[in-house]
Structure formats: structure tokens, C-alpha cells
Records
---
Amino acid sequence: MMDKKRIYIIFTKKQLGESLSEQEHEELIKARIADPAYYKELTEVFSDKETISEFKKLDEQWYKDKIKQGRSKAFYWRAAAGILLILALSATLFLSQRTLNQQPDQLELAFVDDEAMIRKEATIITQKQSYQLKEKIDTTYNIEGHQVKTNTENKLVYKDAPKQTKTYHTIKTPIGGQYRLELADNSVVYLNSNSSVTYPTVFNDTIRKVVMTGEVFFDISKSKTPFIVEMSSGKTIRVLGTSFNVREYEDETFKEITLEEGKIQFNSGSQNVDLVPNQQLIMKDKNITLKNVEASYYSSWRSDMIQFNKVTLQRVLQSMKQLYGAPYKLSHEIDEQMLLICSINKNCTLKENLQFLEMLTDLRFNIHENYIKIDKPDITK
């Protein structure tokens, strides 16, 4: 069971500017996953400038008194744990008072408007027209003679397809949206935010081929007929039956393929590269690198909690950009390649996830008119 008093102590320690150990970082991450509601309450308390200001005044005065007594910084945190425990015991009062007195949050930015962010309906595009798919509702559409059914889990299935008629459809997700599509061969594709897949409504006996943009996870049914995924850059992936994730957003400088099960072959146009499970191919410019990874992390975006295990700050920010449509700018002194172990809760707002990142780093994330500005804190204040 999670020790809320200890989590509050660690949380407070970070807010007061102290460095956390690797174990404390891990405890915060686990706490956020185990009890998102409590974690959200903590972030709300510390988003109150008056509250954190009072905490810091208390902390600074106590530390000054100890300096006068010739105490060391190490002694400071051993003893400060006692004061933080007192703060932890009063956490319930802070949280309950805030719940009673809080006002509805003002709209922060156009690109993080809750209603816009929650607008997760996908669109089916045919040669003749477009169809807006209602989110999480059992509905059947008649699209060019095809009975297309959606369900409460945002899954799209073609029923009673006229096999003599082969047409191409495109499913596209908006920023913040996700969708599942079951293809004619029973393969399933999962589209992440701001992605698309163009596919035939009926496959033939010689080849199964789709075209994708953005980020898509493929769970391909086994068959003697090869399955080809063509990326927007023209690069291809050849499979028979397997599960893998492909990421190729237009505004990112790399292409990434991560294999969970089976075997695939990547064709760059000039060379073929075979991948085995838990192997990742990264192509940047014309350079290809292979590395061993825990593949499940790279498809965790299909769940409510996106997990990152020793990935760069840049990668985390890029994922948040795809989720919330929020570009970012970093101060020149910030190392974008710093490694993080963290998670993004898709049920939280952009502001809440940024507050979580602040706790894990020595950075400050400020939402401006149309972007996120990232700086190091001014220690002189």
C-alpha cells in the first residue's frame, strides 16, 4: 500500500528545491500510477503560489537558524524530515480546504482547451466524401456499400464488405485522439494522435498493403500473403504476422520502428534490415541504428498512461506535443538529451503533466500564448 505521508514528504522536498534520489523519483512515479486522484490533489496544492510561498518561507527561516548553529546541509534534511512530516500530517486540511474553496480553472490556451483536447472523433475519408465517427458510441455507417461498425471502445470494423468492390479508405485521428481499426484480414491497427492509415476495404491474395502517417501500432494476422506497411517517406516494412510500432511524424527528424513479436524487414530503398523482438530501428537522415529495448514502453500510448524508460527529454516533450498540440521552446542552457524515467497520464491536463515533469527535473515549464517555455529556475529569487 502506498505511504501517502512519505509521498507528501518527497513531494514537498522537491517543491522546496532539494534534489531527489533515484529511489525517491521512482516512488513519485509509482505513486502517480497507483493513486492518480491523490497525486492530482498534491499538484493542486502546490500550484497555489501562496501555499508554496509559505512553505518556502518556513523552510528558509528554519535553515537559516540551523546555519547560525553551525549545522551542515546534510543535517538540514535529516532534521527537516521532521518538519515535513508535520506538514504531511496537515496535508488533509490543505487539500480539503482547497477542494471547498477552489474555483473552476480558467482556460489556459486555445490548444489545451479541454473540449478541443477531448474531441477525439476520427474521420473516414473516401474518394467521394468524409465521415465523422462519433466517439465511443455503438453506431453503424453505410460507407460506399460497406457496413462499418464502431463501438464504445473506439474500434472500427468493416462488416459485410462487398468483396467484388475494392476501394481505398483513410482513417485519420485528430490531436489528442486515438482509434482502432480492424482490417479485412482481421489485422488490427491502433492509431495514435494526429495519425492516419490508408487501406483497401478488401485485400487480394497476392499482397496486403497499407500507407501510414504519424504513429501506428500494428497487430498483423498470420497469413502466407505478405503485409506491407508503407511510411509517408516511401520506406516500407514487410511482415507475415507480428506486432510492432511505427513512428514517423512530419515534424520529427527521425523514423522509429519497434518490434514486439514476430519478425519484420525494413526497406530503406537502399538496404534491407531485419528486426527481432524487443529491437528498435531508428533512422535519422540516412543513418540507421539498431538497439535493444523493452518494446512495450514504445506502444504504451495505447493505454491511459504513457510510460518512458530512460528516454530523452526531447522524446517526452514530442509525445506531449502530439497529445496536446503544444509546441515548446527551451532555453539554450537546457540539455534536451537528458534522460528521464517518467509517465504521462492522458486523463490529466497539460498543466498537471507539466507539474509532474517539474518534480522530476530542475526545470520550470510555463504555458505562454501558443507554446510551452522551458527554463531553469532562477535560484536568486
---
Amino acid sequence: MVSDLKVSIIITCYNVEKYLSKCIESVINQTYKNLEIIIIDDGSRDKSGYICDYYEGQDDRIRLVHQNNSGPGNARNVGIEMAAGDYIGFVDGDDYIEPDMIEKMLLGIVQNDCDIAACGVFIENESDNADGSRFVSKAVNIGSFDESKDASVVSYISKEEDNTNMIINKEDMMSFYVNENGSEKGIDLANTVWNKIYKAEIVKNVKFQNRKYYEDIIFAMSVLAKATKAVYIAKPLYHFIADRGDGVIQKGYIREVLIDRLSVHKEQLQFLKDNKREDLIFPLKYNFYNKLLESYDEEKRLKKEANEIYIEELVQEIEKCDEDFYRIYHCDIAQAKARNKMQRFLKHRKIYNMFLK
């Protein structure tokens, strides 16, 4: 019976006292009850630790660890090592989930004999609206399905007004992950671990990286390489809190992000080579350079507040795509608009900058 299967939900938190109670209660109150709730307090300096202590006393399914701050990757690794469930999922301490998220995703996995279930996401931004509402919420499907395009890559299960389920076969999982929203097939298995449930056996021996940013990218690729089949549930079931109002961007933040991003990109390329997926190298580079150019645009629009050192480093990295421009910007997922934009940047940067708004 499905109800006999235990699901370990790993909640990691660091200084999220404003959001943590809502997060934990959304997990405690799931319609699926056979849960092991592992909470890792990663050295919080606010009241998050006390909040965790309170809920540990309220629900005997909770296992709590207080530890020195070691970053989200290491905190999740601790949770994985502790997990005793048949399936494992992750929730960030400042997010929350729909009451039936675990039930829907577990049913999708079991009924279709899959290793992974992924779902759509609500993106919520803190708001200063005059009506006093705290969040602006937007439903985003991390993945979509167009029946008119290459239906052979998925097994179509069911379609309702607000819900589309599909099976993604092993051959296509890594392709959809790398292609992101640039793929005409329209399925995106993003890096995010929090909108997914995994069969425990495929994650138990996989580690998140010990880095400040992008710690989940190689984890995501490693797990996809081990999985045989995934089910995608288009209905948004996870609430991701973006751009928290109390978030602070520290000096040097954007340069640290760039450094980690470049390092991870090299590891991604090597991962594809090691796993004999050279066919995905140029799509990966295509999305990578497009994102660097987006970062350049965002920074240049700051004008006087722009970090010129960071901009110059971005330029140096983006210019590297010129060495293999044709194969990158004529790969299977390349779009003419992105290709033309990059050409303008590489050949006529002063004019390109004039039209940034």
C-alpha cells in the first residue's frame, strides 16, 4: 500500500524566523501522514532555533539537528544521511507547500514506477501593495507540455483544467534539464530540489557540493543520471519565496556568484563528457552564455551604481563564446533572437549598450 511508504522531508533553515512556522506547519499538516520530518537548523542567529525546538515538542515525527553554520549543501547532506524514508524531499525554511503536495507526488511516483516526481511552483514576491497584501504570487510550471510537439518523448497520462501529468523517460531527462526553457519540447527539470520527491536509493550516495552558491547543480545532474524515469506534475504545489524583503546583498556578492557559476559550468561540461552526453555540450553553453549576457544587461542598467569590475569580468567571460560561436548559437535549441543579440554585443558593444533600458 502507498500509505506504508515513508517519506523523509528535509527542512533546512538559516535565519528565517519570519517564515519558518508557516513552512513547518505546511509539512506537519500534509494530507499524507507517513512522514519523517528532519529539520536542520544551520547555525541560525535569530529565533529560528527556538521555533524548531517548539515544533519538535509538538510532533513526534520531527527529528531536529542544531549545527554550526555550514551552508545549504552541507545541511542537506546531514539530512540525507539521517533520512530513513523510502522517498526523500526537500523544503527550504522560508518556503511552504500545498497541503496535498506529498500525496500527489508520491502517487505519481508509485503509480507510474518512477524515481523522481517534480511539480509546478508558485513564485511569491514580497510586496508593498497599498491594500496591505504581503505577497504577489505567480504560478509557474517548471515544465510544460504541448501535445503538438514531439509527443514521442513522454507518455501522456492525464489532463485536467489545472493539472497535467507526464512521464519523462531516461533518455530525455538530461536533455530537458540542460535545454531548460529553450527547448521546443517545453519541459524543464530545473536544478531546484525543493519541487521534487526522490526515491531514496538514487540520492543516498549523492552529495550536495560544499560551495556558497549553485551547490545543487551537480547534485541535480548526478541524480538525473541515476534515475530511469520521472513523473512531472504541472500543477503548482510548492511556494517559493523570492526576493525576501529582509534579504541583504553583501558587498562582493555578485562577484562571488560569478566565480561559483564559472566553476560549476566547467564541472557540468565535464559531467556531460563523462556520461557520454556530448550532444548536450553546446546547448549547455548556449544557455550559460545567454544567462551571463542577462547578468551584464542587469548590471549595466544600474548605471552609476553598477560594479565596473564585475562588468569587465562578465565581458571577458562572454567574449569566450566567440571562439565557438557557430556551434553554440546554431545548436538544436538556439533561437535567432538570442543569436542576433549576442552578435550585437560581441561586434558592436557601444551601440548595444545604448539600447539597454
---
Amino acid sequence: MAKILSILLLCSLVLGCSAKQTDTTPARVSSEAGLRDSQQNLLSDPGQDQASYRRYAIMGFPRFPAVSEEQLDIVVLKNVGYVCGFSKKLQIPMWTCYRLGEEKLEYERSGEWSADPRLADIPLDEDSYVGSGKQRGHMAPAYGMMTRYGTIAMIESFSMANACPMEPRLNQGIWATSENHVARNKRRWANSKTEVWVVCGPLFEPDLPILADGVAVPRHFFKVLIRDPLNQKFDPEQAQSLAFLFPAEGAGEDQTLEDFIVPIDRIEASGIDIMPLLDARLEEKLERNSAEKRWGTAVWESE
């Protein structure tokens, strides 16, 4: 399976599915028409074309406007079901974007972690983290990739470019719970009537601990959800959001997913621009539409 993943990812590289993240930020938008026009103007950047925004990140790929390229050295890696901004400096994805809708396929897990051939110039491979006590935590979840995009997408989710070192309590606990609420539970948010765009990753913080093999260990992880209530008729004026910030150690015994809801501004205070295509007015409106009650109280149940 590792050989299959390497072949698939090598094909992605040959087809030009990776690109440097540049400093040229697209114009911000203030309407649905503006969003569409801005997407059209992105075709000159192979990492930020129109189809990618609709498929992966309706509000644009995240940016770090106040962080120098040398600090992160980000490359944009496209895959069937997700796209990520991978830091070759820290050897972890700094952001991952994906879109989930109706569950179309049965889940049959078949994958094993493997080095990404597009990152052949860094030492990250399937043996990284060994002996560190950390687990390889999926950013784009295997279940969501398989049931929405198929086997190849799930295999690609086991690329080391899609992993961050996580404490087992976080990876198997509240992080998995957040994934299930989006994609897996009976009353999941991503379903036949509603699409959900997800932006997640480690919080960029100074002086992160570094493992022996050079991989940075995040202290916090974020997850931002953007819901399209009109389903495939996306209107920024009507979009709804929900944001979470998780500590690396995971949740306490009495904590639930609701305890980790935060304003998007708190995440962006770390230096990341989660939604670079939105102007300030729409971004503020999206934040006002983030109240958990808008997502339905019943979905917080763990079934």
C-alpha cells in the first residue's frame, strides 16, 4: 500500500499538483459575484485555481501575511479530497482544507502511513514520531475522504503530509469527536442537504518543541467549519461558521466539544488568515453567524 501511495503522489507531482505559496493575496470580495470574479483571477497561480476554491476552500486558501516565508517554507499540495499548505521548515501541514457533503460510499479502511514523494528533500517518512509517544493525527480524515471521494482519496489521507504529531488523548478523543460530528454521526453536519468546508491545522506559535527527526510538535490545533445552508448555491451573506481550538493534551474528563468553541479571531491572532477572500464586513457577519444554536442542538449528541 505504501508503494501505491508513492506512485499516486508522484503522479500528482508530475501533473503539477504542488505549488509554492506566494505572497500575492487575491482581492477580497464583498459579494457572491465578487467571490466568483476573484476566483476567475486566480488561474495564474497553479495552487489557487477556481476549481480548487470550490472543491476545497470556498473562502480561499489560508495565508500567513505577517510571517516570513523563511519561517515556514510552505508548499501547497493538492490531492483528490483535500489540499494542504505544508511547512517544509516545521515538517507539518500548517493548514488543510477539504469539503464534505453527502456520504456516497461505504467505508473500508485500507491504508498505511507513507512518505510523500513530493517532499523528498526533507527526512519526513512513515518512521517519524517513532518512540516519541506521539501519534500521527490525520488533518483530512480517512473516513471523510473514503466516503465522499473514494479509495484513492483515503489512501492519500495516509500521506505524512497530512499528519501532525498528536497526543493519543487528543487524536483518539476530542479531535476524533469533531471529525465524527462533521462526517460520521447519524445527524452529521455534512449530509445530502448541506455541504461543509473545513479548514484545520496546528496553531502557529513561536518556539514549538521539535522531535529528534526535526518535526515540530504543535501546542494547539484549530478547526474552522463553514456551512453552505443553501447547498451548492453559495452565498457569503448566508454562510455560517463554527470554530474550535483544542489544546494538545486533549479534553478533560468533563469537557465536551462545545467547550472548545472560540471566535475565529482568536485563531487568526496567531498570524493565519483563515478566509483571505472575504472583506472585513463579510468576515464579521460570518462570525456573527457562528452561534452553535444555528448548527442544531441535537447534533451535539454523540450518536
